[in-house]
Amino acid sequence: MTQTRAFAPFRLAAAGLLLAAVPLLVSAQSFSTLEERMSAAQFREAGLDKLSAEELAKLNAWLQQNVGGTAAAAAPAASASRIGFSEDPTDGSGSVRSRLLGEFRGWEGKTVFALENGQVWQQVGNDKWAGVKLENPAITIEAAAFGSWRLKVEGYNTMTKVKRVR
């Protein structure tokens, strides 16, 4: 028993060091290069395609050292990589504002939402919302935690998780 108590301060110090190292490890693991963050068009428009492989590697290394994982959250292109599309589905604000096409009667799990802007989104969960009947309602789709998206119908306080399918 006394031997265990003697190691208690060491255990606390080791646990503290481990907790202090976690943000550094997460930042290093969550870093993505410019090529991964940007669509091909954005990469070209920024003139980054003119850099040599060595110059691009140095730029990515500088970003990782000076910006780290926080740049992924700030970069609009990061939201595109979360959904697997080469172009950002938003207007750069981190959200999509459009209208649903046709009559809207809520959702009931795996509901597909066709938007006026040509995008198609599908409900991810099985939550239900009934008792509403609207024509071409305005909607907002916002980025949420862990790369997910939430759809909200204007004028209502109900949301559902969605993913972009087209």
Task: Record the SSE blueprint.
Layout: H1 2-6, H2 8-30, H3 34-37, H4 40-45, H5 53-66, H6 70-74, H7 76-83, E1 95-99, E2 103-104, E3 112-114, E4 120-123, E5 134-135, E6 138-143, E7 149-153, E8 159-164
Antiparallel strand pairs: 1-6, 2-5, 3-4, 4-8, 6-7, 7-8
* Number of separate strands: 8
Radius of gyration: 22 Å
Number of helices: 7
SS class: alpha+beta
Unreliable residue runs? 25-29, 69-87
Total domain count: 2
Q: Span between N and C termini?
A: 63 Å
Strand order of the largest sheet: 1-6-7-8-4-3
- Helix percent reads 25-40%
General form: elongated
Strand content: 15-25%
Q: Indicate the mean pLDDT.
A: 75
Q: What's the helix-strand series?
A: HHHHHHHEEEEEEEE
Largest sheet: 6 strands, antiparallel
Describe this structure in words.
The chain has a 6-stranded antiparallel β-sheet with strand order 1-6-7-8-4-3, with no helix packed on it. A two-stranded antiparallel sheet has the order 2-5. It has helices at 2-6, 8-30, 34-37, 40-45, 53-66, 70-74, 76-83; strands spanning 95-99, 103-104, 112-114, 120-123, 134-135, 138-143, 149-153, 159-164. It folds into 2 domains: 2-79, no CATH class; 95-164. 13% of the residues are buried. Residues 25-29 and 69-87 have low confidence and may be disordered. The protein is of the alpha+beta class and 166 residues long. A hairpin with a 5-residue loop joins strand 6 (138-143) and strand 7 (149-153).
